[in-house]
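User: Structure tokens for this complex, please. No commentary.
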Amino acid sequence: MKRQDALFRSAIQIHRLLSRYAQRQCDPFNQAAAQLMNAQVLVGLAWRRIEKAKRHDLHLTAQAIRPTLLTAVHALQAEVGRFLGQNAQVRRESTSPSLFTVIEELTQLQDEFEHVEILPEKGLIVAHTEPIELDEVMLGPFAIKLHVRRLENRTDSGCFDCTALDPNPAASNESVTHPHVQSSALCAGDATAAISHALKQGRINDAFCLIRSVLQTYNPHSPYVALDSWCGSPCPDCGCSVSDGDLCMCQACESSFCYECMSTCDICDQSICDDCLERDSVTRRRCCSGCRHTCDQCQRTVESGRFDPDTELCEDCAAETSEENEETEEKDPIDSEEQTQPF
Amino acid sequence: MHILFLNNEGAGFADTIEVEPGTSVNAFFAKQFPDRRTTDFLIRVNRLPVGADQILTEGDRVTMTPTKIEGAVAAAA
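Assistant:
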């Protein structure tokens, strides 16, 4: 390998930046404590998932998550041991990886992924995944890009971008190309801590493999867009994606909505969206534009059966006006007569 | 004997650990990940794919990376 080789130049970049980063991480106690807390968080996450499954009476799911909890507890147990003996352990972890390690990692990366580009002039290392299909939704292959220069300030999944090479974004949000990728940023979820450790230790290949593992997995409990509403059209009201067959057209505005956002007129029973309905505040019934009027006097919405088209008033106002007219006539019969008498 | 174990499950860690001589990859995996299947992991010894019955030797570098990891929605800032 020559010093001009792209792999060698990238390895030098990574080694230099990780060394700088390691020098800044000077508090071994805090570092060990942070690792311990990460492990504890994973135990908590697994436990909460089990509890949530139980609350929804998903006992089989709760049972299926138990191994995850067990593994998390094992990891926590290991971290506790490491934390207690942190003087010896952390000293080892705080040292940056050797240049040789980084070179080996980049070499292994080329074996693990079929397509790898090492671009030291751009500060990029790119690996392509195989086409990814989750729950029968084809998302296509992804380019996992390590922005080497970001390693100067961080060692987490934020150093990576995940770009869809043949994008099939969610219908409701074009920036979501994967249930866990928005605007090319991956939310690594359960892999967050492991990716961070791998990068700190210069295990570039492991970090790439971890990201690929996240891309190959669907977590239905926390997606940007759920796969079961990936295709179809977005509902203009709530924004969720629904298949075209599940859309319902509003008879008033003629826009299409999901069933959740559709209602019916309480008078004529037509399918009308929420925006096109108004409620008669007295009868509490919701009326479409054809079944409601506005009272000329009190200005409230009135359903058509309780509206007097001659006076253009609601029942109450019409009754009041009628009573007032009668009273006026009773009080001033002379005036009335006088007014009607001819000269 | 001692091997370097790089565990990419959960919080992830790298540590030198002691194993019995003659331990196979499969046996080592079963001890580290009870109730899990080897098919759910990418297992490398000295950076190379290995068979489940390969015997570990002193100084081996063993990496175990799950092939399925659940992502999430980024927490709001």
